[in-house]
Amino acid sequence: MINPLLELKEVSYKNKNDFTLNKVSLRIKSGEKIALIGKSGAGKTTLISILNGTLKPNKGIVKLFGTEFDKLNLYQKSKISTIWQDLRLIEDLSAEQNVNCGLLGKQSFLFAFKNLLNISSFNKAHQYMKVCHLKKSIFSKNIRKISGGQKQRLAIARALIQESDILLADEPFNNLDPKLTSYFKNLLLITKNKTKIKVPNTTLISLHRLDLLDGFNRIIGMKNGEILFDIEKTKLKKYHLNEIY
User: Fold this and answer.
1) What kind and span of H or E run contains 10?
2) pLDDT surpasses 90 at 148
3) Distant-in-sequence, close-in-space partners of 221: CB < 8 Å, separation ≥ 6
4) CATH tag for 89-205 (out of 3.20.20.140, 3.40.50.300, 2.70.50.60, 3.40.50.1010)
5) In 83-196, which ranges are continuous DSSP H helix?
6) How is the chain split into domains, by residue range?
7) Which of 11, 40, 114, 129 is most buried, taking the most CB atoms under 10 A from its CB?
């Protein structure tokens, strides 16, 4: 049996008076391209937050590379990158500074200080920003002065510059037109790309749009904080979708 990169065992998470995850078990192996689907409130964002360590479960175990999450150091945790649905960009920083923040898990405090003072090197950030179809004219602009679609692409660039092994993405195609959606979907799912940047080999992407499921090899359907099905894409049928929608 192939050891999973990321694993949940009987994980539950209770928010106030309601369980948003209930006894969820999950194994993610290297190279998988997973689509996470379900209605709003199904628990998809909570699941992603548990997988990347942002939330700590009330019960159950989370493991990365076979080690429980609480025992990992910052560098090990940086092997997971996340594109958040609410983007979580820092409004007081420029576009290029925000992208550079993706490097913080692998850099020293001095790097973080230089980035804050805008005297750090942005060569790598600019490379990733160009791949994400961001023009040079916005590189040094404050986040407040750029559009929603540009912010979405910045969040993707920030995650990719981390050069992680696993990418978790919560509705990463929001605010993108159809052409850009197709481009970024291919970028995130096709490891061997023409951009000459490293793209995580393993991805889990939360989606609302079912027309974007092509290209994934595994589909996880959630409802009311539980996984109702976890199947190969080729085995997905209409009755599976009727279970969760």
Assistant:
1) strand 6-15
2) yes
3) 37, 38, 227, 228, 229, 230, 240, 241, 243, 244
4) 3.40.50.300
5) 95-100, 109-116, 123-131, 148-160, 178-189
6) 89-205
7) 129
> What is the residue-averaged pLDDT of the chain?
91
Q: Do 101 and 90 contact (CB within 8 A), yes or no?
A: yes
Query: Tens digits of per-residue pLDDT, 52-104?
Result: 999 999 999 999 999 999 899 888 888 999 999 999 999 999 999 999 988 88
Q: Do residues 96 and 140 touch, judged by C-beta distance below 8 A?
A: yes
pLDDT at 71: 93
The H or E element containing residue 47 is helix 44-51
Beta strand pairing status for 166-170 and 80-83?
parallel
Tokens of 100: 């550079």
DSSP 3-state assignment of 204?
strand
- Coil, strand, or helix at residue 91? coil
Q: What's the pLDDT at 242? A: 95
**Strand-pair partners of 9:** 61
Q: Please state which of the ranges 21-35, 41-55, 142-156, 192-206 shows the lowest mean pLDDT.
A: 192-206
CA proximity to 174, closest of 86, 101, 89? 86
Are 34 and 203 contacting, i.e. CB atoms less than 8 angstroms apart? yes
Of residues 219, 244, 222, 215, the one with CA closest to residue 231:
219
